[in-house]
Amino acid sequence: MNATKDYLFSPLVYGSTLSAIGIYFLRQYMQGGQFTKNTDETGRVVIVTGCNQGIGKETVLELARRGATIYMACRDMRKCQQARQEIIKATNNHNVFARELDLCSMKSIRNFADGFKQEQNKLHILINNAGIMDCPKMLTEDGFEIQIGVNHMGHFLLTLLLLDVLKSSAPSRIVVLSSIAHRFGRIKRDDLNSEKSYDRKMAYCQSKLANILFTRELSKRLEGTGVTVNALHPGVVNTELFRNTPFLGSKIGKILIAPFIWIFIKTARNGAQTSLYAALDPSLENVSGKYFSDCTPKHVGSAAQYDDDAEFLWAESEKWTNISI
Ligand SMILES: *[C@@H]1O[C@H](CO)[C@@H](O)[C@H](O)[C@H]1NC(C)=O
User: Fold this and answer.
1) What is the CATH number of domain 36-239+268-321?
2) Hey, whose CA ends up nearest to atom 2 of ligand 1?
């Protein structure tokens, strides 16, 4: 009897053990690289946009642990204050501040930058983290299609408004969160604002491609200033980004995909690692205009290699946001 039992059970037991081990390592692999270097950020001033949850919040938490002075720039001040309190409690770093920034409004962006400069005359790290994805057609306060408006134009204006203080604080860094989705993007030269046609996925990909082209062009303009700018793909991360995606955003959708999310989708903490690497790794001191994923340099997609697209986008962005350098 026992022999039969063993015979029946062994393959099952071994099979499931092997699968469990396989799934464990697959998950470890999918969670991506970790930034493990110790750095001391005491006295360094950082701005992180869109950080009341997800990757942004985890990024602020780790920066706070390392002693940085951090300005959390968020639209929803109630959630921002709540996240700030949690971070102060967890790190005992009281130099964490919540300030209002609505990337849908150029007025709000200018107010934020003015207010920041009144409080601080240094800025060492700017992390353009905020992003929206897969939205139905909407316009910002200034009439920009919302995905290119928030993900690119808002951050374009914010970055340019802060360049003087970044330059005077050099060495300093700008970190731009893009996405692997940039590979599917195209800069619609005849319809950048999606007035003739709108496809929510394509508008997202265009905005993420814009992040990389912006990084490419800005890095050229910043040569020799001691300010670097790099873009990155944080990984596919389980945050509120999916809230607008029809099926995945629903209750049933969430339950059905939960096991796959556990294996294939990074936690927010793991999603923050490449941002921390780009912002802090001493080996990147002189590295600019690059693209990272899983805490290593990667090649950008072919769509992101056209200088003329980068120049076109820069000129349009200056016109739209009424600023130039
Ligand atoms: C960056 O450049 C400066 C000036 O050339 C040099 O002193 C420094 O060692 C470089 N840093 C790294 C990490 O290569």
Assistant:
1) 3.40.50.720
2) 286
